[in-house]
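Input (structure):
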């Protein structure tokens, strides 16, 4: 009933990157159903949030379809990541943000003692389990041009000039010094690790 998913950051009562989220929702519905109209009533959600608002960082999780939606709001904190395992999946398709994440969860279950995974297709780096990626080289940050999902924060960072798209393959990792994980909930720079934290089996 709710095949699509959107996660929106609420910081001290304010939606973050809402225009980017609504545009992605519109594109997803057009691709899935052929309609650009989405059912989510943000004004109604805002009224309910204002009634129960509190300072801090919250995650607004919306599951939606062509005509209906449901949502939850929960406090958010970043899960620590100290190491990542490279896993291969040449056939995985997550071009739309589906609420069914079972294909991603199957890959995530292979992480062994590591905190997260880096998913590769045909040797090209895509994303982690829950975040887009960027790699630093000589003070410049590059994001793979083959992401599984066009994240809203990724789109915003590219448009603002903070990161640049580039082909990045597993064999290129020694050319970079740091990796950054980011998404709608995690700000760019909040979760960085040395490239040495990436384990290639």
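Output (sequence):
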């Amino acid at each position: 009933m709710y095949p699509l998913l959107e996660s929106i950051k609420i910081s001290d009562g304010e939606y973050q990157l809402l225009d980017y989220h609504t545009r992605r929702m519109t594109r997803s519905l057009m691709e899935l159903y052929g309609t650009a109209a989405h059912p989510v009533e943000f004004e109604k959600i805002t009224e309910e949030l204002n009634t129960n608002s509190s300072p801090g960082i919250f995650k607004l999780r919306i599951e939606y379809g062509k005509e209906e939606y449901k949502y939850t709001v929960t406090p958010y904190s970043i899960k620590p990541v100290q190491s990542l395992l490279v896993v291969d999946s040449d056939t995985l398709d997550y071009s739309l943000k589906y609420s069914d994440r079972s294909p991603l969860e199957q890959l995530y279950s292979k992480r062994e003692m590591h905190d997260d995974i880096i998913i590769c297709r045909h040797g090209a780096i895509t994303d982690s389990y829950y975040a887009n990626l960027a790699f630093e080289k000589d003070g410049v940050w590059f994001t793979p041009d083959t992401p599984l999902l066009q994240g809203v924060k990724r789109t915003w960072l590219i448009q603002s000039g903070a990161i640049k798209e580039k082909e990045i393959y597993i064999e290129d990792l020694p050319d970079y010094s740091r990796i950054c994980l980011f998404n709608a909930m995690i700000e760019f720079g909040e979760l960085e690790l040395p490239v040495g934290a990436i384990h290639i089996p």
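Notes: The CA atoms of residues 21 and 134 lie 20 Å apart. The first helix runs from residue 18 to 33.
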